[in-house]
Backbone:
């Protein structure tokens, strides 16, 4: 497949337009220069629509579009639980987690750990997250993105990989989070419209004269097994999605860790104007998550009928793009590029934020208010952040092929690999937020236990589904953290996070929206159980 001239015009127009927009929103006021708050937290002034759109843009990328469509091809609609359960998780984050983070003026997750437990856990987790973001998340985005560019546009995959990474870092290099967040509404709009267009055309191709609705009915008739949301133990993919565990088990642990304690996700909400504005953005993002399976998973299921002999499941989405006529192909391809660029830029910005504020800035002398003692240090922090951004994407480009290139279902690979760490992370933050007795010894014990127990259980019980393994590891790590916190004395000044004065009340609009989302989820699972 190759792009026609009109497709190239659309894609190039998008690239120029989004780059110019990013530079325009990144401009400094006359006589002013960016400080660390401007660059890493968008001056803590993001409106709700930017928060919500940026949450989705940071989340939905090649690993979601290409990878989840591939899992839809291999497994079916059950993979949509990652999207729909995320919608419910976001409501918990907005109601219970964000008020604490924003009340305590948290700007990074490692910073929260230091204020709650102590400096050692901050450094340990900062280094861990940098490694995870660079060697798992960033590599997977540009690798799967390069697959899509190669199959749709015929561009050499290595060239595509370098091009995507370079564009992503350059587009946000000047403005930081503000450049990313304030342009993400454009990226998300293009992503949703483009994905819906692909879904509509695939269903029309299946339905023929019966149209889109007839095509959906024909698809459910021809591949009924691909529309089971809760897989039975005899299903060949039960190990990836073990039945009710997606509703009451390990998927909650993964989602709480990802949406509540993940820097490149939660950073958007931390940069909101206020708690209420952040919660509006959370609800907006939650509604969009309910829509995502229609945008991403459905084309993968349709490919089972339209392209049943694919060599790898991850080829499903790019193959479905071949149904698009010239012009529309360029639009949808631009939407795919938008998702890749937005998510890549988000992770790059998070990497720069953690490296600069949690590792480098600790070397600088601070004033009584916690700000750098020398105003010139603020400019240095921004420079260090930009250098860290460039170095991180260069490392990801070099390591993408050996780390991700051998996986048939990259989305599932990412989930399972992350599952070694997420139980411990979830334990650390939940105890830190809601149990005063938790201390640094318990937190470090939970982090170490999470990795060790995950490896032990994987080796000892290889057939245990990884979501179930995460549940076992979570509860064992939780027990260890509680015991260590009770046995090992805590320093009197270790906990500087205040919860007593936090207002957990939410607006009527937020409560009504939450009820609506829950009812939609109940209807979806009742229909496709």
Residues:
């Amino acid at each position: 497949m190759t792009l026609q001239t009109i497709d190239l015009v659309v894609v190039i127009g998008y690239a120029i337009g989004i780059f110019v927009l990013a530079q325009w929103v990144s401009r400094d006021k006359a006589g002013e220069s960016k400080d660390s708050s401007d660059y890493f937290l968008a001056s803590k002034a993001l409106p709700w629509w930017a928060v919500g759109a940026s949450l989705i843009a940071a989340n939905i990328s090649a690993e979601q579009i290409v990878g989840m469509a591939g899992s839809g091809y291999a497994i079916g609609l059950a993979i949509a639980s990652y999207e729909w359960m995320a919608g419910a998780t976001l409501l918990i984050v907005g109601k219970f987690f964000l008020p604490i983070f924003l009340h305590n003026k948290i700007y990074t997750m490692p910073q929260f750990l230091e204020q709650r437990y102590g400096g050692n856990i901050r450094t340990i987790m900062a280094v861990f997250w940098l490694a995870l973001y660079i060697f798992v998340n960033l590599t997977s985005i540009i690798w799967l993105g390069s697959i899509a560019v190669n199959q749709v546009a015929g561009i050499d995959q290595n060239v595509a990989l370098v091009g995507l990474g370079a564009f992503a870092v350059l587009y946000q290099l000047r403005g930081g989070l503000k450049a990313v967040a304030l342009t993400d509404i454009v990226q998300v709009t293009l992503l949703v419209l483009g994905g819906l267009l692909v879904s509509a055309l695939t269903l029309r191709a299946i339905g023929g004269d019966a149209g889109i609705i007839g095509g959906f009915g024909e698809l459910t008739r021809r591949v009924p097994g691909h529309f089971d949301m809760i897989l039975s133990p005899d299903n060949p993919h039960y190990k990836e999605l073990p039945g009710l565990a997606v509703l009451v088990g390990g998927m909650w642990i993964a989602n709480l860790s990802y949406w509540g304690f993940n820097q490149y996700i939660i950073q958007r909400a931390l940069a909101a104007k206020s708690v209420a504005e952040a919660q509006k953005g959370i609800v907006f993002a939650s509604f969009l998550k309910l829509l995502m399976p229609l945008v991403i998973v459905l084309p993968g299921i349709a490919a089972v009928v339209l392209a049943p002999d694919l060599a790898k499941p991850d080829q499903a989405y790019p193959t479905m793009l071949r149904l698009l006529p010239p012009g529309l192909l360029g639009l949808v391809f631009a939407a795919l590029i938008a998702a890749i660029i937005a998510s890549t830029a988000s992770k790059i910005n998070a990497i720069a934020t953690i490296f600069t504020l949690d590792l480098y800035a600790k070397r600088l002398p601070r004033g009584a208010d916690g700000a750098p003692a020398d105003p010139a240090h603020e400019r240095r922090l921004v420079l260090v952040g930009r250098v860290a951004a460039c170095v991180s994407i260069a490392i990801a480009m070099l390591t993408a092929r050996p780390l991700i290139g051998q996986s048939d279902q990259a989305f599932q690979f990412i989930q399972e690999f992350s599952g070694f760490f997420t139980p411990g992370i979830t334990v650390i933050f939940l105890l830190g937020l809601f149990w005063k007795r938790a201390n640094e010894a318990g937190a470090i014990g939970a982090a170490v236990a999470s990795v060790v127990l995950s490896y032990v259980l994987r080796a000892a019980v290889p057939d245990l589904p990884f979501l179930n393994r995460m549940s076992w590891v979570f509860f064992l790590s939780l027990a260890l953290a509680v015991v260590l916190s009770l046995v090992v004395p805590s320093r009197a000044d270790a906990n500087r996070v205040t919860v007593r004065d936090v207002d957990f009340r939410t607006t009527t609009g937020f409560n009504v929206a939450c009820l609506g989302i829950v009812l939609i989820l109940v209807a979806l699972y009742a229909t496709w159980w």
Remarks:
- The mean pLDDT is 87.
